[in-house]
Design goal:
The complex is a heterodimer. Chain A is an alpha+beta fold. Chain A contains 2 helices and 6 strands. Chain A has one domain: Ferrous iron transport protein A (FeoA) (SH3 type barrels), CATH 2.30.30. Chain B folds into 2 domains: about 190 residues, Rossmann fold (3-Layer(aba) Sandwich), CATH 3.40.50; about 400 residues, no CATH class. Helix content of chain B is about 60%, strand content about 10%. In chain B, strand 2 and strand 3 form a beta hairpin. Classes of the chains: A alpha+beta, B alpha/beta. Strand 5 of chain A pairs antiparallel with strand 9 of chain B, so a sheet runs across the interface.
Chain lengths: ~80, ~600
């Protein structure tokens, strides 16, 4: 098991959400969008010049700003 | 009886609303349009039922203003119709379970039922009904499927009053439910999936965005010009003009009443652009010159909204908007502003912080001309060539960037990060697009006509009273020196406060040179929002922030107008002019960031 932030996760790679480096406010917001601990998500597109990361969670795509993405810790099998 | 429609954003709530009430309301793919809740009525078994379209919310533990509104509304209803996206059952159930804990009866509409089946998602409705304890009805709102079953359940009054415990326990419960009722069959990666992804990835998405925007502008111009050239102008010239000419003769071709209604005759003829009567110019500008572009713009905007393209644009421009202290979502008020600044000012309210609201509203009011003004700019400058129109928009673009960069540097407070659901591409229903277009046209005419009539009335009154001459002598020389505009242009600038299209129309008879038209068009866009926008901005920002924004606008007008008068020579910017622009853009980098440290700390406070 390997841990890295959502920014560092490669484009097209799958990972499991391990945790968040932020307060309850951030966690609530992300949870409401379906991004929560233990959830498997796929990164669709990388952050480009400070732009957002886009991920696929179940059947929805969510764009997450660069700052927030850096606070999401992912777990990948390697 | 009061029924609340509740659900996550992008679940088709507004479609239910318009189905149930028969009234047309705005329904779009991006979150934010229904923050101002909509109310409608329907007759049900001889009773009048009040139906409320509650702003879309992901959770009842509010994370923003719109969600607070939603929670507050729960106290008022007799029944909640919880609209659930069948293709995203898991996330949607979070809201459902929270609703079941409340002291209000709930029934569930499982929407996008057809899409879920398409995507290989199978949901056992009976079992879901048993597990939740409330009626669950599969629906396809756009086609009207299931609506009748839903209506039959309006007298459902059982209250669940569940207690699912804290957040983690609730998600665990959702996990259990999903495992029991949902089965996903693996499915092939379709062409649409591919298109959805390439439209988000910057490398492919940005070229696609450029093509989409370019085509949009081309189509808007094509429709706008076509309608003017083949429909509205011929109608006014061949049908309307002879009627007014008869009236003119009836009124004796002169006198105050004649001048007020018909206006000045230009070489014995009525000139719709120059006569300035209540029945000539005041009718001609909104109907013949502006309406065609309004139709064209809102038709294209409706398509972009309902296909789900706009949130993709928000993703692609996010990094640029961060430079001006905003995030990608703010592109939506900017695009709405191109139609009319009023709905744009309303859309800016969904932004999170006071700082973001201020920046977005100010930039929108300063640098985004509305379609009414754009139509007149195209009409007036078009004959001189596209280059001049290009200059107006290029300068406005530069103003947007420079003012934005500066505001981001000097304003205290924090800016938030983008977090946005990107809905799938959906084929828009032509019915909904046309309905929405119709509503927007009606609201344009309703807002434009009174102001236009009032404006023309004031123009005539001031003309008779000699107010304009006084102003021209008083302020004119100063304007002339600074902007290089003739003294009479002051009257147009003043009327711009009422309506920008009227002001542009007043420039027409002055015989301005192309350069003067470029300068006047630009400062008319920058200097002040029209009175309708102004009123909304005061309400949204508060009087203090609005005064600050006004100050920014006035300073910007003087600097930009003066600069253009100086730099624009012989049909274009001089080399020195270009160098100054580049230098300013370069120098802004070195202005110290007043709030940088605070920004980080405040950001932490917000999150924790």
């Amino acid at each position: 098991m390997n841990q890295l932030t959502l920014i560092e996760l490669g484009q097209g790679e799958k990972g499991r959400v391990f945790g968040f480096e932020g307060g309850q406010g951030l966690i609530n917001k992300l949870n409401a969008m379906g991004i929560r601990q233990g959830k498997e998500i796929t990164k669709i597109s990388d952050s480009f010049l400070g732009g957002p990361v886009t991920v696929q969670v179940d059947n929805i795509k969510v764009a997450i700003g660069h700052g927030m993405s850096a606070k999401i810790i992912m777990e990948v099998d390697k | 009886m009061k029924i609340l429609l509740m659900g996550n954003p992008n679940v088709g709530k507004s479609v239910f609303f318009s189905r149930l009430t028969g009234t047309s309301v705005t329904s779009s793919n991006y979150p934010g349009t229904t923050v101002e809740y909509t109310e409608g009525y329907m007759k049900w078994r001889g009773e009048i039922v009040n139906i409320i379209d509650v702003p879309g919310t992901y959770t009842l533990e509010p994370t923003n203003k719109a969600e607070e509104v939603a929670v507050n509304m729960l106290n008022e209803g007799d029944l909640v119709i919880n609209i659930v996206d069948a293709t995203n059952l898991e996330r949607n159930l979070n809201l459902t379970l929270q609703l079941l804990e409340k002291d209000i009866p709930v029934i569930i509409a499982l929407n996008f039922w057809d899409e879920a089946q398409h995507k290989g998602i199978q949901i056992d409705v009976d079992r879901l009904e048993r597990l939740l304890g409330v009626p669950v009805i599969p629906t396809v709102a756009t086609k009207g499927n299931g609506i009748r079953d839903l209506i039959n359940k309006f007298d459902y009054r059982e209250i669940m009053d569940r207690d699912y415990g804290k957040t983690e326990k609730r998600w665990a419960e959702i996990g259990k439910i999903i495992e029991e009722v949902q089965q996903i069959n693996h499915r092939h990666y379709s062409l649409l999936d591919r298109l959805e992804e390439v439209s988000i990835k910057p490398l492919t998405g940005i070229p696609i965005a450029i093509i989409v925007l370019y085509l949009s502008f081309k189509i808007i111009r094509f429709i706008g010009e076509g309608l003017i050239g083949y429909v509205t102008e011929p109608f006014f010239e061949t049908v309307y003009k002879p009627m007014i000419l008869k009236l003119s003769i009836l009124l004796g071709s002169q006198g105050f009443l004649h001048d007020l209604l018909v206006g000045q005759l230009i070489e014995g003829e009525i000139d719709f652009g120059q006569s300035f009567g209540l029945l000539t110019t005041a009718v001609f500008i909104p109907f013949a010159a502006v309406l065609p572009y309004i139709i064209a713009f809102y038709f294209i905007l409706g398509l972009l909204e309902d296909t789900g393209y706009l949130p993709r644009l928000a993703v692609l421009v996010d990094n640029v908007l961060h430079k001006v202290g905003l995030h990608g979502f703010s592109i939506i008020p900017m695009i709405l502003g191109l139609g009319c600044n009023v709905p744009a000012a309303l859309a800016a309210r969904t932004l999170e912080s006071r700082r973001e609201k201020f920046i977005a509203s100010t930039l929108m009011a300063i640098a985004i001309p509305c379609m009414a003004q754009i139509a007149m700019i195209l009409g007036l400058l078009g004959p001189y060539g596209g280059k001049y129109i290009g200059y107006v928009f290029a300068v406005l673009g530069a103003v947007w960037i420079i003012v934005g960069l500066l505001l981001n540097k000097i304003l205290p407070g924090f800016s938030s990060d983008l977090l946005l659901e990107i809905p799938p591409f959906r084929i828009p229903s032509i019915g909904t697009v046309i309905k929405k277009l119709w509503m927007r046209i009606v609201s344009f005419l309703r807002d434009a006509i009174p102001f236009m009539l009032f404006g023309i009335f004031i123009v005539n009154l001031f003309y008779v009273l000699g107010v304009f001459d006084l102003l021209a002598i008083g302020i004119g020389p100063f304007l002339n020196r600074l902007f290089g505009l003739p003294q009479e242009a002051i009257t147009a600038l003043l009327m711009g406060f009422l309506r920008k299209d009227l002001a542009m129309g007043m420039l027409a008879p002055l015989g301005l040179t192309a350069k003067q038209l470029v300068v006047a068009s630009t400062i008319l866009a920058i200097y002040f929002p029209c009175v309708a926008t102004f009123a909304v901005l005061i309400r949204e920002l508060g009087i203090i922030d609005m005064l600050k924004a006004t100050l920014v606008m006035i300073i910007t007008t003087f600097i930009v107008g003066g600069f253009m008068n100086f730099a624009f020579q012989e049909g274009g910017f001089t080399l020195l002019g270009w160098l100054i622009i580049i230098l300013v853009l370069f120098l802004i980098k070195y202005i110290p960031n007043i709030n940088n440290r605070e920004m980080i700390s405040e950001n932490k406070n917000l999150i924790s």
